[in-house]
Batch of 2 targets.
Target 1
Amino acid sequence: MVFTARSEPARAAILAAARQHFTRDGYERTTIRAVASEAGVDPAMVMRYYQSKPGLFSAAVDLDLHLPDPTGLPIEQAAGLLARHFVTRWEGELADEAIMIMLRSAVTNPTAADRVRAVFGGQVVTLVRAVTGDSPDSELRAGLISTQLLGIALCRYLLRLPPVAALDPETLIAAVTPVLEQFLTGPLPAAAETDATRTASARHDG
């Protein structure tokens, strides 16, 4: 759909209201009617712009991780760069609202879960390949890295697990960097490489 400058205020209000509802109520309990009421528009306008609740959700959490460019960086520094990027982003005054919305929603909703997989699967894989080259285990490494990044976000910012939430940012960065380094550039257990590596290798060779 082509948007005009006149539609911008209404779209901004709709997306702001949608983010509030998805954050507070999760995907399942958020309704088009509630978002429209919060934004001060007719529900038909929300449907006109976004067609459906999945369409609204995708627009509200249109997420770019803004991953750092590791080009030219010594490979041993890449994991620390990645850890600092995420912790700094999450600790900022403007917390990473889109990731928090996705985490809250992905546990119970397939649409949100698909979105998480697409965002982390695509963007983190790209970073891994920039560091290690297009190796057969890039997707496996990206998946393992994502478990750490999403796990920290879940435990520190949503569940607020006391030992994790209590860590100061620099200590958190120092703690997670060796784990990311292992997943990014270290050897992987042979058993963990089997199916994922074989599938990626077949795609790469074919």
Note: The chain has two domains: 5-60, 75-205.
Target 2
Amino acid sequence: MTPSRFTRILPAILALVLPAGPASADDAAPPAPIVIMTDTPTDPARFEWLSEGARTALADAIAKQKAGEIFAFVFAGASGGDYWAYRFAANDKALFGVDDLARQALQACEFVRRAPCLIVSINGTDPRDAAGGVPGQPLMLAGQPAEFDAERVPFVGMSDRSLLAAYPAEPKAKVLVLTINAGWLWRTGANIFEAAATAFADCQTTYPGQGCILYAVNERVVFVPGGPY
């Protein structure tokens, strides 16, 4: 882990070490994506407000589904830059739901843009409402719990959340890191500083070229939506 990366996460880790009152869990229901299914094929050129890179990626996703390379997908994007993300199920046996794919795509796009994104295609069809518009989405990263809850971890899919359910049972000092592309890992150590150093080093090795994001230190969630990574 580089010194600059350590400097960015150090305040969050110190907050866990210094005396503080007990954290109370956020019991508010997490936001749900607005998903509209239609039979109208998606035309990437129609979304002129998307960047050229996003339109190219959208066309590629549509082509892959038509060719049978992926089974289902949700594509999210936003104007004002090259903001887009899509999540897919590789085959019909994968553990997924359209709402879950939508959540992952919107969360990844929102984290980089630092504002809500829009769903522009579901399985190659336009998700437009009755008025012909693309519905706005809530802040998908809002309402993070204070204490770790595997069902609230962002960016990851349903199957990963089931694996993350084992995180609280780890008795050693531990740190969980994520990537916006659904990567995750946790590491333990003699203390949380050692666990953090190992987690970030291993994350950069396991997910090269992706930003590694601090999510939880022990059971305390320290994730900051739109924060540095």
Note: The radius of gyration is 19 Å.
